[in-house]
Amino acid sequence: MGYRFSDLTTACQDDWRAYIGHPFVCGLGNATLDERAFRHYLQQDYLFLIHFARAYALAGYKSRTLDDLRQAHEGLRAILDVELDLHIGYCREWGIAEADLAALPEARATLAYTRYVLDTGHRGDLLDLHVALAPCLVGYGEIANWLNAQSFTLRGDANPYDAWIAMYASDDFQAAMHAELEWLDARLAEVTPRRFAELCSVFRDATRLEIDFWQMGLELAS
Ligand SMILES: Cc1ncc(C[n+]2csc(CCO)c2C)c(N)n1
């Protein structure tokens, strides 16, 4: 007993490292990522964000306390009012019109990841759902920090992906990530070894699905 979030990343170390340092991520850092791969990723990420908004709505439904309900509401609001608007604006800068986003066919990797998270939330409790969401929220913050610490990473105008790194390295995003880490640490402190093993398997699967999402971008997979 007495687990914390870092015990999840330690237990799933190989998958976690493969996700954080994926070739797609390295290509964002050293500006070598093929622009077609980035555009494909951005398009699928639009669909991804819509399903993640639904996952926060499910977190509201699964909440037992007013605090948890408010937190879910804030997560849903952040995606609808901030992330999606930013994303649509960002897509426009990359030559992708909003009308095209709405008509996109969903890639298998998007379908698998988003529905896995929703199913995990339906099957389990609020902690299962938060653990399934953690590779997304905590992972992207860690990726931005990891990129900033790599000597190959180019920052500023020399890198067309600089705005992407800046978004997840921003104080606002890092604060949201730390709030989530605190919430997870408090819940994980109380779980039994058997329950921790279940949560590890959720965390590992969601992390593997994030890896597939990067790979889908690289391979322009549908
Ligand atoms: C495949 C994929 N994984 C994670 C994120 C990052 N992200 C998506 S929703 C959300 C919560 C913010 O309100 C965060 C951090 C992404 N965009 N695409």
UniProtKB/TrEMBL annotation:
Pathway: Cofactor biosynthesis; thiamine diphosphate biosynthesis
Pfam families for the chain: TENA_THI-4 (PF03070)
Domain Thiaminase-2/PQQC: 14-219
CDD domains given in the database record: TenA_C_ScTHI20-like (cd19367)
EC numbers on record: 3.5.99.2
Reactions this protein catalyses: thiamine + H2O = 5-(2-hydroxyethyl)-4-methylthiazole + 4-amino-5-hydroxymethyl-2-methylpyrimidine + H(+); 4-amino-5-aminomethyl-2-methylpyrimidine + H2O = 4-amino-5-hydroxymethyl-2-methylpyrimidine + NH4(+)
Residue spans crossing the bilayer: none
Annotated GO MF terms: thiaminase activity
The entry's keywords: Hydrolase, Thiamine biosynthesis
Cross-referenced InterPro entries: Haem_Oase-like_multi-hlx, Thiaminase-2/PQQC, Thiaminase_II, Thiamine_Salvage_TenA
GO CC term (a single one): cytosol
Domain of life of the native organism: Bacteria
GO BP terms, alphabetized: thiamine biosynthetic process; thiamine diphosphate biosynthetic process
Function: Catalyzes an amino-pyrimidine hydrolysis reaction at the C5' of the pyrimidine moiety of thiamine compounds, a reaction that is part of a thiamine salvage pathway.
Family per record: Belongs to the TenA family.
Name recorded for this polypeptide: Aminopyrimidine aminohydrolase
Organism whose genome encodes this protein: Halomonas ventosae
